[in-house]
Design goal:
It is built from seven helices and no strands. It has helices at residues 3-12, 27-37, 42-54, 64-79, 82-95, 97-108, 118-129.
């Protein structure tokens, strides 16, 4: 994971849209796990963060970790071709079959569609890429 992805995940894990019980969990670790699982790049992480905020980090009665993985998979599927997605679906079926079942059910629901515009993506990307420098005088 490069320094920008690390920084992006740190900023994601402090979103004000995260429910109070979510802030009690090791959120950065869960986000990093999903990022590695899906080999996410910066664009995917930005879209994923917007999507999670839109969902208020909640999908039905799923745990926060399940919600994060479902949203990551959906982002991956939204931004990639079918050949790439087959690899990740096989991984989920093999190692996370319960999450894959919830993902498939979620995808049949009308509320699952990602609806983020390029302006939102650009704004979030710029926000995530900002580095704060502290000078000691």
């Amino acid at each position: 994971m490069n320094q920008y992805l690390y920084s992006f995940l740190k900023k994601m894990s402090s979103s004000n849209k995260i429910p109070p019980n979510g802030k009690l969990q090791p959120l950065f670790k869960i986000l990093a796990k999903a990022t590695r699982l899906f080999h996410m790049n910066e664009l995917e992480v930005v879209v994923w963060s917007l999507w999670l905020d839109t969902l208020y980090w909640t999908i039905d009665d799923s745990s926060l970790e399940t919600t994060i993985i479902i949203a990551a998979m959906q982002t991956k599927e939204h931004l990639n071709e079918e050949e790439v997605i087959k690899i990740y679906k096989n991984e989920l079926n093999s190692n996370y079959s319960d999450i894959m079942e919830k993902y498939e059910a979620w995808m049949k629901d009308k509320d699952h569609e990602i609806n983020v515009g390029i302006t939102d993506i650009n704004r979030r990307y710029t926000e995530f890429r900002q580095v704060k420098f502290y000078y000691k005088l």
